[in-house]
Amino acid sequence: MTVINSFTWMIGGPQGSGINSVAENFARACMRGGLHTFANIEYHSNIKGEHSYYRLRIDAREPRSHVDWVDLLVALDKETMFGDLNKHAPTHRGHRHEVSPGGGIIYDSSLKLVPDSFGRDDIKLYPVPYLDLLIDALKEYGHEREISKYQVMVNTIALGASLGLVDYDFELAASAIREGFTGRKAALGDLNVTAARRGYDYARKMFGADTFPVKLRPQPSKERRMMVRGVQAVAIAKLKAGCGFQTYYPITPATDESEYLESHQKDYNMIVVQTEDEIAAINMATGAAHAGLRSSTSTSGPGFSLMAEGLGWSGITEAPGPVIILYQRAGPATGLPTRTEQADLRFVLHAAHGEFPRMVIAPGDSVETYYDTFDAFNYADRYQVPVIVMVDKFIASTYRDVPIFNGDGMKVDRGNVLKDEDLAKMQEYKRYQFSELGISARSRPGQKGGIFWTTGDEHDEYGHITEAADVRVKMMTKRMRKIQLADEVIPDSKKATLHGPRKAPITLIGWGSTKGAILDAMEDLKADGLEANFLQIRYVSPFPTRFVEQVLSSAGRKVMVENNYSAQMAGLIREKTGIAVDGKVVKFDGRPFSQNEVYESVKDTLKNGTREVSVSHA
Amino acid sequence: MLEMRTYKTQVHNDWCPGCGDFGIVNAIQMTLLEMQLEPHRVAVFSGIGCSGKTPHFINAYGFHTLHGRVLPIATGARLANPSLTVVAVGGDGDGLGIGAGHFVHTGRRNVDFTYVLYNNGVYGLTKGQASPTLPKGIKTKSMPLPAIVEGVNPITMAVASGYTFVARSYALDVRHLKQILRAGIEHRGSAFVDVLQTCPTYNDINTKEWYSGDDLPVKQARLYKLEETGYNGIVSDPSNGAEVNEKKGNALLKSFEWGDKIPVGVFFKMEVPTFEDQLAQRMPILKEKPFVEQDIYNRDVTPLLEELA
Q1: Which domains does chain A have, with CATH numbers?
Q2: What is the pTM of this model?
Q3: SS3 content of chain B, % helix, strand, coil (to 5)
Q4: Tens digit of pLDDT for each residue in B6-62?
Q5: Could you list the residue range(s) of the whole structural domain that residue B191 is in?
Q6: Cβ contact A276–B104 (<8 Å)
Q7: Is there a contact between B292 and A242 if contact means CB atoms under 8 Å apart?
Q8: Closest Cα in chain B, distance from residue A226 (Å)
């Protein structure tokens, strides 16, 4: 039986073997044909040599998560299939076990593998002479003597073979490949297309056009779409929001965003500063914010730990920002530096000593990340607070097709700022003037009549140090009032979403990047006759207490799904609403939830009444 | 009309009587007046400690920041608005202890501002512990035991870190300090001014009398002015590597003089493109007017989205 347009593909190889470029070419080729792709990469903290893999889920409908099986595995090396069990400290047993029955593996025929060695008689093997085909392709361009220079292109041979097996429109793939090579590199584009063609023709000739059970067919597209990674969504939102200042210290997986911004510095005029550490990063950004420029910094857990002190200063001085993008990764300390986790929730809420208002938003995918990042700058200006947007390595690196971001209704709001003429009319200006709503008007350093002082000490309305108890109480109350105001002004519909039916016997609860896997798993549960809805919490501070209380107090079985050890959000919900969840599904192996993991583990909690299921499919 | 009181605030000053900080604040205010800088065009940044209170006494935009973090915060504000005259101040513990990393990297950047180090060898506000500049073996009065480690040399560090103006003055010689501060503020690039300062409460070694050389066999002030010895630390041609190295080398050698003879004045000066100049090279709109005054709130991101489509 042939399956059309429902396909999972994985390419694996040592780091440095170029799996990214071919995987992304494949994804773009699918988008050109109106198909939808959800793709994500797993890699080691290593430059060259360690095993990495990139998986694509391609479908007629938009996939929002990945699954743990592979219809077609492309191995650039033996380890991709058999793991590293020969090593002193093995880390994985290879992906041949993940190939779905009836699926297949493309691998290098020069490895001369015996079919029995795969231990699978339910899959097809497609040995391809990578190097011979590449040399053939190089001959066409007279480069056959430079094989070492072009050897990495065996990845494109393998991509071509994949396209041949799924019978996809080669021209769509060819144009996607060429897009990556413009200007002086155009000739390289032709060479790559030729290499892909060799692989394509070889697979069809040797294995036949009908050998593989899945076919990909272009379909009409309803709208214009684009392929975007989370880091790009953040960066473009920052430019759109009028952010003028970005600081960073190199750290996985946040740095890609800053590099993207710096590479567009000339066209968009944005100062990007690589600082000496994250302490400088946050403080420099706060200095720029106080000076009147929208500013931001991006980091992951280890960097955010260093930023705690600066966060407090931004809070007590009521700086309009910065916006901090936190790409969570598995901790503590260096943890699993290239792997994902959602374990910084409690830390972000409480980082830095003392109490001060902060806003924390946790978008669930790259589209929400775009809009939430934009909003974050408005909040920073309006409420004069630091705003933290929590994403993670999974969202950062997930590569998927989405509708082209729509700018409608995105308006910059700089909050309560004073113009020169406002200041001219004032008898006296007080930067921290007490006000009913907690917000005082801001001047900008350099403005006449706007002189203010600011300090991390408790201060009076002018910003001068005070230790007076009554001023302390008033000033503290004023600052904390702002988060209450944000809670009142921002509608619940932004802070949380109830997906699916209003009432259901099962309510799944999640936040951040688990969104996609939960949404997709809900459909599996439904197919089993288990109807569920999904409460997605998007704002952590201000927390949508009333809404969550309302949903959960009348919910059936409540199952929390979190990418951490201790189900931190479940604890926060209990703190805010007094409501305890009935079951928890947690995963803390540094890998994101797949659709099937959520489906299976939720079923497990329902069937066995288990209070907690810990998942690891690595 | 600008006058001395234009630069003063009504804030109660709680520094100890006789504190060297008074001299420094006065000198900063006199310099601003002499340069006819309007208060709202000036931003003063400080770290934590006694010196941290400085901005509260000066009528200008004032930022009292975190311990050791004055330089990154001042850098951010200055890059956002290069039309501001930025003066950063901080103690020796602030700048060379907890903030030592920022001290080094600020020198590398060469942002156009002046950093004034209040250098008295002790952590005053926490009651007299040894600061990073206190020499090994010295025990000031509230220390239980003498300093067990070597002190760092601010001038040496500043030259090595890349500050393009490196000078030293003395808090109790307000005239000289004012000259040096003015030269620092007028310098295009990161100017570092090491201000030797007495702490009458906790540093009973490096006192006013010690600086005056009262204890020497023949009483003679320990401080001498570099410019009076024919020393010239100014690089005339920054593209001449040999001259730059020679001037830096001379400054380093001079920086090690300490004890009976202590040099003050300009150790090193070189004008090269500032961080702001280099940013403006990459982004020409920065030459037009301060970044904070530009409209960057209507950027069209369509081309970036199209690139992904």
Answers
A1: 3-215 (3.40.920.10), 227-403 (3.40.50.970), 420-489 (no CATH), 494-614 (3.40.50.920)
A2: 0.97
A3: 40, 15, 45
A4: 999 999 999 999 999 999 999 999 999 999 999 999 999 999 999 999 999 999 999
A5: 4-308
A6: yes
A7: no
A8: 4
